[in-house]
Amino acid sequence: DASDIEKGTYPHYMLKEIDEQPFVIRNIISKYKEEDESIKLDEDIRQAMLDADRIYIIAAGTSYHAGLVGKQLIEKIANKPVETHIASEFLYNMPLISENPLFIFISQSGETADSRGVLVNVKEMGHNALTITNVPGSTLSREADFTLHTYAGPEIAVASTKAYTAQMAVLAILAVDTAKAAGIQMDFDPLQELAIVASAMETLTDQKEQMEVIAREYLSVTRNCFFIGRAIDYFVCLEGALKLKEISYIQAEGFAGGELKHGTIALIEEGTPVVAVATQEHVNLSIRGNLKEVVARGASPCMISMEGLQESDDQLVLPKVHDYLSPLVSVIPLQLISYYAALHRDCDVDKPRNLAKSVTVE
Ligand code: G6P
């Protein structure tokens, strides 16, 4: 049938979509680039970002994890306060809303009911809304004031991969555009740096055998797995844990490295896999310290570090990219390791039990 043709030679959509990420990033670069190499963005969106005194990012699932990275990017690059909220919680526990807020909805499908519920409410309150979505013309796109397209192409596998990296790429571009419009000087060119990211992604998608070995060694018999990171790496750990849960049904949790000792470390037993991610110099030593603490209690450590920070016994070294964009690269091995873990456990990779690609009920 048609879906077989679309999958081409790939056994699963998820693997195809993981592999497509370098192309998606290059596509985003070309769609957001003016002829003079500057950022191409709707003037109304630029103005709405400038006018906002605070940004509220609303999303669910993997898109929420992209929103956590988005907060970091917009605050660090554009110097504007941002809060990221889980869509299904927002209306039950509404934060104080600033005088001139801008709401940013991040949604692959543009159809998530939890996110739409918030959009309808904030529009009623008279606020501006921008939707970042892979489906322009979707409900969230039509009902918001503005849309930014993630240009990732259709994502079929239930577990989101390319939409997540595409969302973060667009958020980085948006953050820099806002900073420039506000007159903030910087030497970070997101379009150039994203091109480096695309190549780094390719290097990693070419290392599938290594990822399969890691999945086999660490995840073939375990019942749980922990992901630890600090700062921006922590957000990627949340996404890595979600991927593993979704498709392999291994109980997984992402933790801030320093928080382990306040509870989770009680779960560490002989052989418990702990994946640690270190892409930022300022957290490299402290996350390695956390890993040593769990190793002393029997954990099997899998250290993933970025080039320049690696030590000789690290399991995987990521090609160097700009610190701001490291999540786009560090997530690739986590996606692939989850994929192979699910495969080894005979799980239905593209259609995991109990999950839907887009959840249109609250
Ligand atoms: C569902 C999917 C997740 C996705 C979430 C949000 O739960 O299974 O993969 O992250 O919805 O979807 P959205 O389309 O709003 O990004």
Radius of gyration from the alpha-carbon trace, in angstroms = 20 Å
Describe the oligomeric state of these chains in a short phrase. single chain
Output the number of helix runs.
14
Q: Let me know the average pLDDT.
A: 96
Query: Which small-molecule species are bound to the chains here?
Result: 6-O-phosphono-alpha-D-glucopyranose
Shape label: globular
Features of the shown structure:
362 residues; alpha/beta; five-stranded parallel sheet; 15% strand; globular; binds 6-O-phosphono-alpha-D-glucopyranose; glutamine-fructose-6-phosphate transaminase (isomerizing) activity
Structure description:
Helices cover 47% and strands 15% of the residues. The protein is α/β, with parallel strands linked by helices and 362 residues long. The strands form two sheets. The protein has a five-stranded parallel beta sheet, sandwiched between helices. Strands 7-6-8-9-10 form a five-stranded parallel beta sheet, with helices on both faces. The two termini are 32 Å apart. The active site is at 357 (for fru-6p isomerization activity). It comes from Evansella alkalicola. Its EC number is 2.6.1.16.
What are the SSEs and their pairings?
Layout: H1 2-7, H2 13-19, H3 21-31, H4 43-51, E1 54-59, H5 61-78, E2 82-86, H6 87-90, E3 101-107, H7 113-124, E4 128-133, H8 139-143, E5 146-149, H9 162-181, H10 190-205, H11 208-219, E6 224-229, H12 232-248, E7 251-256, E8 273-278, H13 281-295, E9 300-306, E10 316-318, H14 326-344
Parallel strand pairs: 1-2, 1-3, 3-4, 4-5, 6-7, 6-8, 8-9, 9-10
EC number: 2.6.1.16
Enzyme class: transferase
Domain SIS: 45-184, 214-352
